[in-house]
Amino acid sequence: MINVGFCIAYDWNLLRYSLPLIYKEADRICFSVDKDKISWSGNRYNWDEEGFRTLIDEFDTEGKITVLEEDYHLSELSPMENEVRQRNLIAKFIGTKGWHIQLDTDEYFIDFPGFVKYLKSKHFSRPVNICCPWITLFKKVDQGYLWIKNDDLDNQDIIAIATNSPEYQFGRRNGNFNIVTNYTLLHQSWARESDEIAEKLKNWGHTNDFELQNYFNFWKTLTEDNYQQIRDFHPIQEQRWQKLEFQEGRTIPYLINTFRENPPIIFPRFKLWLLNSIWISRARKLLNIMLRKIK
């Protein structure tokens, strides 16, 4: 079973890009929406119920989609705690049979058929997460998009996407062993209109993690003429995002096809072996423990 859950809020319309990429290979799809249309941060957001239902009718040709509406904005929880709670409720609703995949509406699989083929070829006796490189689009400019590039592969953004044991502790993270693949996700993230970014910053799970207005002001200054000057600009851990690259293309489908033909991030086989060896992972943990004791 290939089970896919989406966390859906104010940017539901981006499903027009992300849903067709996964629909054919998915067995079950859950659209999880707050019943009051209130964000994890406790803010009410704009919602077009008729448009949302029309989109489902348009794309759900095989009756795979179920809409799960719950209260995901408990006032006693932080935005991140509300996010984790929603993800766990999706997992509980879908069940644990087969592979459990969680996506946001602005995440676009470059090769989902290949990813599913990979999942179905693997059999693990322990809980694992299957992780994908995350190519983050940072800003839409006149002739294309600025995207985040790290020359150091050890610094590459990787996101846990699929698991055989869905239980979440921070975002999509948990204590399962992480296995890295070369199945890339394109993350639209910051590459939106200014009013959309303002709403995103107000409502997402990291709302309390950094100074939003200052970072928003920095984002607005970026252009095709000055992006090459930017270095180390992640809002929470600066060096996680090393620089920006420009990719020509005015639409998301065009960008997806471009990156499908020329993947911007490829881990060499030996690097994947190092990342995915449980014995090397255990040795690193033991070494870190020994070094801490020495200090």
Structural class: alpha/beta
DSSP strand (E) fraction?
Answer: 15-25%
Task: Give the beta-strand count.
Answer: 11
How large, in whole angstroms, is the Cα Rg?
A: 19 Å
Main sheet?
A: 11 strands, mixed
- Please tell me the overall pLDDT: 90
Q: CATH first level of the domain at 2-187: which class?
A: Alpha Beta
Share in helix: 25-40%
The DSSP helix count reads: 9
Task: Encode the helix/strand succession as letters.
Answer: EHEHEHEEHEEEEEHHEHHH
| CATH architecture type of the domain at 2-187 | Alpha-Beta Complex
Taking pLDDT < 50 over at least 5 consecutive residues as the criterion, the unreliable ranges are: none
**Straight-line distance between termini:** 48 Å
Net shape: globular
| Fold-level CATH name of the domain at 2-187 | Spore Coat Polysaccharide Biosynthesis Protein SpsA, Chain A
Description:
- The chain has 295 residues and is an alpha/beta fold.
- It has a domain at 2-187: Spore Coat Polysaccharide Biosynthesis Protein SpsA, Chain A (Alpha-Beta Complex), CATH 3.90.550.
- 33% of the residues lie in helices and 23% in strands.
- The chain is built from nine helices and eleven strands.
Which properties best describe this structure?
Spore Coat Polysaccharide Biosynthesis Protein SpsA, Chain A; alpha/beta; 295 residues; 33% helix
